[in-house]
Amino acid sequence: MALELRQLRVVTAIADAGSLTAAAQRLGMAQPSVSQALAQAERAAGGPLFRRGPRGAVPTPLGETVVGHARAVLDAMEGMAAAAARHLKEDRPATVRVGCAPGLLVAHLSAALPLVAGSDVQIITAAGTAGHLAALAAGRTEAALVTHFPVPGEAAGAVGGTEGALCGAVVAVEPLFAGVSARHPLAARPEADLAELARERWFLPPGSDDDLGAQLTQACRRAGHPVAMRGADHAAALALVREGRAVMPMLPGSRTGRDLVLLPLRGEPLSIVTVLHWRSGGPLPEEWIRSLWEHLVRAQRDIIEAAPVYRTWLLAHPYWRTTPLGPAAVHRPRG
Questions:
Q1: Do the Cβ atoms of 42 and 57 come closer than 8 Å?
Q2: Which residues are bridge partners to 320 per DSSP?
Q3: Strand, coil or helix: what is 247?
Q4: pLDDT(48) > 70
Q5: pLDDT at residue 72 is higher than 70
Q6: Using CA atoms, how far apart are residues 247 and 149, in angstroms rounded to an integer?
Q7: Least CB-packed of 49, 73, 166, 174 within 10 Å?
């Protein structure tokens, strides 16, 4: 088997984008060139790598094997190139500092950044968004991976009140589910209306910015009822939810354990946006940012969205696309 790096990039781009057309757009290639590279890769591999159908291009078992090894090869090449570039560029930071709001993607930064930048990484985790953006604008960090909760009329990805010349690229726009007790009357339902939780107490994560509370307040108002909510320690809130004494907004890729159920909400009244920010003219080159964004999007699709409840929901809601095709400041998930 003799696959060229160009063919490996095409194969992984098709797997990530889900179609040859989207892969061509992501790679900046003409679609006939992508089709030709795929045909060459399939001849070298000895069989078809993708099945074409209504859901796009889905890897075959052989394709999954080739894509997995292709990622390892491309990551190794990327890490080597980044390390070499850092030795040639003395102005590149030896340690990249990234401010992060708690979330499921944070763990992937410590693995992705050394591959992208050839540098060590320092992850600074704290709740909220405004503090991380202020630190980035002031030069105390080189990047920030933060979340926010858009209210009606606000574009998914827009974060107001930032300081300095900050740039942002949406990594994912996800629905928020309601975490409820496994004994809750609605727990066995595939989804529920927010109005059916009108009498519940909602607990919000400690230290979160006001936009989550504002989003929940407005969503409940549109559903025709006021909302009772308060902040609480995460562990204490989970205990109350398991006991059936409260509910809380939860990420759809969360692992729940015993006595806790993720209940999808009809119409997606609550959502969360994850955005990668950097400083315009800062020490991180654009190619690093693009590569880091691609690593995070891949982790979102391959790891977080593989959680059983989330995967089932996505299959039942094919109009919802969590990730954009390319780095962009705004992404609308509804197709």
A1: no
A2: 334
A3: strand
A4: yes
A5: yes
A6: 18
A7: 73
Residue 193 has pLDDT above 50, yes or no: yes
Amino acid at 235: A
How far, in Å, CA of 266 to CA of 294, rounded?
Answer: 30
- Residue 177 is predicted with a pLDDT of 97
Q: Indicate the pTM of the whole model.
A: 0.72
Per-residue pLDDT, 56 = 81
Let me know the angle formed at the C-alpha of 11 by 36 and 167, rounded to the nearest 5 degrees. 115
Q: In 10 A of CB 254, how many CB atoms?
A: 16
DSSP-assigned letter for residue 265: B
Classify strands 50-53 and 56-59 as parallel, antiparallel or unpaired: antiparallel
Give residue 98's identity as a one-letter amino acid code: V
Contact between 123 and 98 under an 8 Å Cβ cutoff? The reply is yes
Residues 6+ apart with CB under 8 A from 134: 163
Q: Which two tokens stand for residue 135?
A: 């630190």
Q: What is the mean pLDDT of the chain?
A: 84
Tokens of residue 263, six digits: 């209940």
State pLDDT tens for residues 144-168: 999 989 876 666 665 544 445 899 9
Confidence of residue 284 (pLDDT cuts 50, 70, 90): confident
CA distance 232 to 207: 9
pLDDT of 207 strictly over 80: no
Contact by Cβ (8 Å): 147, 224? no
Tokens linked to 138: 């002031």
Report the distance separating Cα 62 and Cα 322, nearest Å. 27
CA distance 240 to 319: 34
Domains of the chain with bracketed CATH: 5-72 (1.10.10.10), 89-174+271-316 (3.40.190.10), 177-263 (3.40.190.10)
Task: State residue 102 phi and psi, 5-degree precision.
Answer: -55, 135
Residues whose CB falls within 8 Å of the CB of residue 144, separated by 6 or more in sequence, listed in order: 98, 99, 100, 132, 133, 135, 136, 276, 277, 278
What residue type is assigned to position 314 of the chain?
Answer: L
Per-residue pLDDT for 314 more than 90? yes
The pair of three-digit structure tokens given for residue 102, joined into one six-digit string:
């708690």
Tell me which residue has tokens 């964004």: 293
